[in-house]
Amino acid sequence: MAKVIVVTSGKGGVGKTTTSASFSSGLALRGNRTVVIDFDVGLRNLDLIMGCERRVVYDIINVINNEISLKQALIKDKNCDNLYILPASQTRDKDALSLDGVERILNELKETFDFIVCDSPAGIESGAFTAMYFADEALIVTNPEVSSVRDSDRILGILAAKSKRAVDGLDPVKEHLLITRYDPKRVEAGEMLSLTDIQEILRIPLIGVIPESESVLQASNAGTPAIHLEKSNVAEAYRDVVGRFMGEENLPIRFTTVEKKSFLQRLLGGR
Amino acid sequence: MARVEPAFKLKTANLSVFVLHINTTDMAQLKQELDERYRKTQGFFSNSPVVLDLSAIATCEATPDFSDLLSFMLDHGMRASGVIGGSDKQRSAAARSGLGLFTDPAFRSTVKPAPLPIASNENPAQESEPRKEGHSKSAAEKPVADKKIVADKKEEETQSGNSHFPGQSTGPAQPVFEPGSVSSTSMLIDKPVRTGQRIYAKGASLVVLAAVNAGSELIADGDIHIYAPLRGRAIAGANGNEKARIFTSLLEAELISIAGCFKVFENGIPENLRGKPVQAFLDGPNLVIRPLQD
């Protein structure tokens, strides 16, 4: 049975799209047939991060309006064979995303794919609501700062009360906490909330911690999901997240403590 | 040929009407209290039919002057239209004044004896009905009261640590509460209360087993018990019950309020309460917060 996973946060700029790109790539790299949908109609970004912006001809709104078939709008990822992207429209607004239309698309996708990853826009308005409404599981992307934690708390409340699963009285949406842009040095200095601070407030299972890294920005600009980076903490952390999501329970949470650089590393100045 | 519809049909209907319970035969006192209670809410009744319940004064010798009472009530928008209960003498006097007689008081099968001496009646003349109105009114006013907190907070805070919600101040409009009248039921919440969520235990106490996060709001007409950190707002005794209390195993609240008297923690939680299980209750006009164990 195909699973619908929403990547959401409430707050903007915390790494939803970066996570959607890397998470869906990671699922596909493990052989799962995966599709990632950009719900940020009007501010589409996912195609940029995935490096397929020049191949976007049709988008999700065209499919909702029955102008084209779903197949015509799906873009095959350049890095993974099993991954497809359904881009958002840049010229429309979020009201064009109807719940009925989205449900129809998801049901059609469920016939072909194992995992459907929904990249939610920021906020709690209709776009974000539509993205989360049909979710089976949710990745709650949170930065170690109070406003991000507060907004994630709000999103969790909405998931528990207004998602389709909640409305229909089914099992609740399975929630996973993903902390991104975590900088152990600044946590130690008391400038950032710690892992335990965040968990104490949100109280949902932790699926991973992505360390703060300059390489994420470079990867985004290059149109390559961060999970494909060589020798990168971020890529390894995302692979761990996918592993835990697939049920590998014995993966320790890494990159949450300050690593002392060896003499040689310091000499070479590597990062 | 089509059948002609008859000019009328007689049917029975169950309608809800106001019932004014008369607890005294002292008409001057009754009128005075009625006037105090409803003068300010002129449009509330808007010519609604009102039934007079005489059960409580059935054993009294005196018979109220119904025609005088009727015109007085009409001035306040209440159209007295019948009586329930009462002695034979009282009922025939009511009928002479044009009031209907409810012969079978279905919702009051036993006639209560008059429990109260006429002069020293401490309750307002009408008992259960104004309370009903107080309920609905406070529920309807809640969002407004919340907004008022923000507007009036600063000004009142400077006067003392404690303040009252405007519109919930003491006075004749305050509904009267019997101890224990709202604590018979309770509502249980076992999931975290998230920011933006509001939980209202209407006419009940509220028990919360999970964290109450900042930006959330708990409201209960009775007590509030939180066996987890309280970081949001907790409003107990929301309909004016001054006996309501708030208990929490860890106080980090944004605001706590009992029966309209509230406290905010602008300068953080006081040293002696920090990290401890505490309770909050009203001591006269003061909202007191104490550790559960010293």
TrEMBL record, chain A:
GO terms for cellular component: cytoplasmic side of plasma membrane; cytosol. GO terms for molecular function: ATP binding; ATP hydrolysis activity. Pfam families: AAA_31. GO terms for biological process: division septum assembly; negative regulation of cell division. ATP binds at residues 11-18. InterPro entries: AAA_dom, MinD, MinD_FleN, P-loop_NTPase, ParA/MinD_ATPase. Interacts with MinC and FtsZ. PANTHER family: SEPTUM SITE-DETERMINING PROTEIN MIND HOMOLOG, CHLOROPLASTIC (PTHR43384:SF6), SEPTUM SITE-DETERMINING PROTEIN MIND HOMOLOG, CHLOROPLASTIC-RELATED (PTHR43384). Belongs to the ParA family. MinD subfamily. ATPase required for the correct placement of the division site. Cell division inhibitors MinC and MinD act in concert to form an inhibitor capable of blocking formation of the polar Z ring septums. Rapidly oscillates between the poles of the cell to destabilize FtsZ filaments that have formed before they mature into polar Z rings. This is Septum site-determining protein MinD. It comes from Candidatus Nitrotoga fabula. The lineage of its organism: Bacteria, Pseudomonadati, Pseudomonadota, Betaproteobacteria, Nitrosomonadales.
Automatic annotation (TrEMBL), chain B:
The keyword Cell division applies. Residues 112-182 are annotated as: Disordered. SUPFAM superfamilies: Cell-division inhibitor MinC, C-terminal domain (SSF63848). Residues 8-79 form the Septum formation inhibitor MinC N-terminal domain. GO terms for biological process: cell morphogenesis; division septum assembly; regulation of cell division; regulation of cell septum assembly. InterPro entries: CAP/MinC_C, MinC, MinC_C_sf, MinC_N, Septum_form_inhib_MinC_C. Residues 159-172 have a biased composition (Polar residues). Keywords: Cell cycle, Cell division, Septation. Residues 128-157 have a biased composition (Basic and acidic residues). Residues 189-289 form the Septum formation inhibitor MinC C-terminal domain. Belongs to the MinC family. Cell division inhibitor that blocks the formation of polar Z ring septums. Rapidly oscillates between the poles of the cell to destabilize FtsZ filaments that have formed before they mature into polar Z rings. Prevents FtsZ polymerization. Interacts with MinD and FtsZ. This is Probable septum site-determining protein MinC.
